[in-house]
Design goal:
Largest sheet: 2 strands, antiparallel
Helix content: 55-70%
Strand order of the largest sheet: 1-2
Number of helices: 5
């Protein structure tokens, strides 16, 4: 196969998805977003499986990857709806942290241009003292950064789905052309 084939393109798309997922995983860890951390981890495993299937000519692995991309698009649509507060979802809920903590997206306090100010709460002393954090001057609100991340993931996943389907069809077509024709029926003359 040449260098500009669907197979090479799918390898490139899987590598790009891995980089984007790893970047997203880092920021989800920084924000203690446990549901996205688990989803990203599963996504990384399936993309590696799809990459392996593409390199090793294993169409079944690529089919698993193609099915996963549909699930991944659905997850990212949910994330977009969550941060844009569509359909009764609230970005201030603890849904993405499994109600374990009150953390939000890392970008909510550390976005581009954001100035973070901490004010300690009076009367509470000790190692576990909490402080009130106010964030001002953000150039871009954190929910739009999360929406851009999810939109980019959807774009890559949709293109990956198309190429995965194409590569599976090419692989199975090549498999079928390599098969020997059936033997003629055995006619016993007795």
């Amino acid at each position: 196969m040449g260098c500009c084939t669907g197979r090479c393109t799918l390898i490139f798309l899987c590598a790009l998805q891995l980089l984007a997922a790893l970047e997203r995983q880092v920021f989800d860890f920084l924000g203690y977003q446990w549901a996205p951390i688990l989803a990203n981890f599963l996504h990384i495993i399936i993309v590696i499986l799809g990459l392996f299937g593409t390199i090793q000519y294993r169409p079944r692995y690529i089919v698993v990857y193609a099915i996963w991309t549909a699930v991944w698009v659905t997850w990212n649509i949910f994330i977009i709806c969550f941060y844009l507060e569509v359909g009764g979802l609230s970005k201030d809920s603890e849904l993405l942290t499994f109600n374990i903590s009150r953390h939000q997206s890392w970008w909510s306090e550390n976005g581009p241009g954001c100035v973070r100010k901490e004010a300690s709460m009076s009367g509470i002393k000790g190692l576990d003292s909490h402080s009130y954090v106010s964030v001002i001057g953000c150039a871009l609100e954190y929910r739009y950064i999360e929406v851009m991340h999810s939109s980019f993931q959807i774009l890559i996943a949709l293109v990956g789905f198309v190429y995965a389907c194409y590569v599976v069809s090419v692989f199975t077509e090549e498999e079928d052309s390599c098969r020997l024709p059936p033997l003629p029926p055995n006619k016993n003359i007795c």
